[in-house]
Amino acid sequence: MKLSTRSRYGTRLILDMAQNYGKGPIQLGEIARRQSISLKYLEQIIRPLKRAAYIQSFRGSKGGHVLARPPEKITVGEIVALLEGGAFFTGCSKNSDHCKRIAECVTRFVWMEASHAMYARLNQITFGDLLNKGVSPGKEVCD
What we know:
Elements: H1 5-19, H2 28-35, H3 39-51, E1 55-58, E2 64-67, H4 76-84, H5 91-94, H6 107-122, H7 127-132
Antiparallel strand pairs: 1-2
Helix pairs in contact: 1-2, 1-3, 1-4, 4-6
């Protein structure tokens, strides 16, 4: 399975904000530059994060964005699930009406188990944990 760029970049966005937590609002352009991600793409990614109250925005000359909670209170699993549209690999795992073959589908069990295992682990890792692992501002992270 490959996570979408939306989840990977969203995770980098939150991590960048975690690295600067408590230092005041950060402009999205600064994050885009530091992370080498298109500003337009970050503008798309930040919308659901704001709606879900992970990020607060402030207008004005000293405006920008801040994490709405401490990094220790946000898990990687929460962010990935939000940006992937749910914590399931397949549509039928969430909604049995999604597939006509649900009654005889043996593989559904596999996808449900895999989804649960992955998100159970991602939900154990907070952005505070990542900061404690030595991730520092400007340090490269994976795409």
